[in-house]
Amino acid sequence: MNDELVLETKNLKKSFGKFQALRNVNLQLHKGEVLGFIGPNGAGKSTTIRVILGLIKATGGSATVFGKDVWKDSVAIHKNLSYVPGDVYLWPNLTGGQTIDLLLHMSGQKHTARTDQLIKEFKLDTSKKNRTYSKGNRQKVALVAAFSTDVSLYIFDEPTSGLDPLNEVIFQQHVAELKKAGKSVLLSSHILSEVEKMCDTIAIIREGNVIEAGSLESMQHLTRNTVAVRTKKPLDELQKAEGVYQLKFNDSSKTTAEFSVDSDQIGNVMDLLSAKTIVQLKTTPPTLEDLFLRYYQSADDQKGGD
Ligand SMILES: Nc1ncnc2c1ncn2[C@@H]1O[C@H](COP(=O)(O)OP(=O)(O)O)[C@@H](O)[C@H]1O
Ligand SMILES: [Mg+2]
């Protein structure tokens, strides 16, 4: 594992007038990693990215890319960075093909065989004018240019929001390729299933605060597995077992049960089940959706009083 930091924000803040869009954003992206930046609409993902790109100035904290200050050194940083915005705006009178070449030219790159390959994979008709393209096609134009650009850091803001599932898969494959080539990727999304597949680490943002960040494993640790079990002997003891929640017996003999269990108690619970002679067992790992829900619920619980 390479520990080289490619991107870092520390206690990043951004206010628009009285409105504080970013309160405390802490992100770390290492070389060769894909960081998923996850949060609902309005949480502050695009604002954070705009600060990182040097398009707007932070009102507090710090942000560095390649160890350089994002505001002061944006010119140097941009030579080694590729960005695809969430809503791609393109020159209306250029064709998709002209646009791809222009975007490449602007970042000092060339149209290569790889560019042609990408156009083919995304099934993009490059002869059409940008103004005739759907949102998804505009995104494809920007993605083709980005993926055929050879830089160290790629930033995608909600990249697949306009893509159909087939193109989403192509996108995911190319992100995996970048990662294999040792590139770093920041990927924002409000769709967790996108992230599960591609990211090494995720950071969850809510109302301008990064409320949790780390590896997927370290976060799933916090969530509960769902267990469905059938045993020979009754399972009454589960009622007082530590870390067991939402226990439901599906028969009067109490030998068929469903429940959720804290990850750190799963060993003890399995011992308990084994002692009752397991006939059938199914455990379902927590999805990020569950994890997300739990964060939101706990934040809402804390707010409860006001
Ligand atoms: N230029 C701006 N002026 C005022 N408010 C803004 C501006 N840009 C973003 N915001 C507000 O900041 C919050 C975060 O927005 P944004 O970063 O776009 O969220 P996300 O990308 O996570 O959906 C939202 O409440 C949005 O309305
Ligand atoms: Mg956004």
Automatic annotation (TrEMBL):
<keyword id="KW-0547">Nucleotide-binding</keyword>
<dbReference type="InterPro" id="IPR017871">
    <property type="entry name" value="ABC_transporter-like_CS"/>
</dbReference>
<dbReference type="InterPro" id="IPR003439">
    <property type="entry name" value="ABC_transporter-like_ATP-bd"/>
</dbReference>
<dbReference type="GO" id="GO:0005524">
    <property type="term" value="F:ATP binding"/>
</dbReference>
<comment type="similarity">
    <text>Belongs to the ABC transporter superfamily.</text>
</comment>
<dbReference type="InterPro" id="IPR050763">
    <property type="entry name" value="ABC_transporter_ATP-binding"/>
</dbReference>
<feature type="domain" description="ABC transporter">
    <location>
        <begin position="7"/>
        <end position="232"/>
    </location>
</feature>
<keyword id="KW-0813">Transport</keyword>
<dbReference type="Pfam" id="PF00005">
    <property type="entry name" value="ABC_tran"/>
</dbReference>
<dbReference type="GO" id="GO:0016887">
    <property type="term" value="F:ATP hydrolysis activity"/>
</dbReference>
<dbReference type="InterPro" id="IPR003593">
    <property type="entry name" value="AAA+_ATPase"/>
</dbReference>
<dbReference type="InterPro" id="IPR027417">
    <property type="entry name" value="P-loop_NTPase"/>
</dbReference>
<protein>
    <submittedName>
        <fullName>ABC transporter, ATP-binding protein</fullName>
    </submittedName>
</protein>
<keyword id="KW-0067">ATP-binding</keyword>
